[in-house]
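Entry type: protein chain
Record version: 2
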Amino acid sequence: MYAIIKASGQQFKVQEGDIICFDKMGLEPKSEVEFKEVLALDDGELKIGTPYVEGAVVKGEVINEGRDKKVIIYKKRRRKDSKLKRGFRRDFTRVRITKIA
């Protein structure tokens, strides 16, 4: 059984027990979170929503919040003496999917 949910502007395929990193939600660890924007649900037969599946809910438990590894963005234009170096660290919330209903 799996579901496709929409969260933080992205779509994720989730199953019970999966651990997914979402954009930072500002929630405490061990707190419950519900995703009501379920785009598709497969429990033997595939149900596709228009745009969301009626009555479908995906529940999860927040594990922790943190920051990813630094990603270096480096741009160089040849023969122009032009270069740009920036760093970026993404804030995330790690969630364990507990129930698909």
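Comment: The chain has one domain: 2-100.
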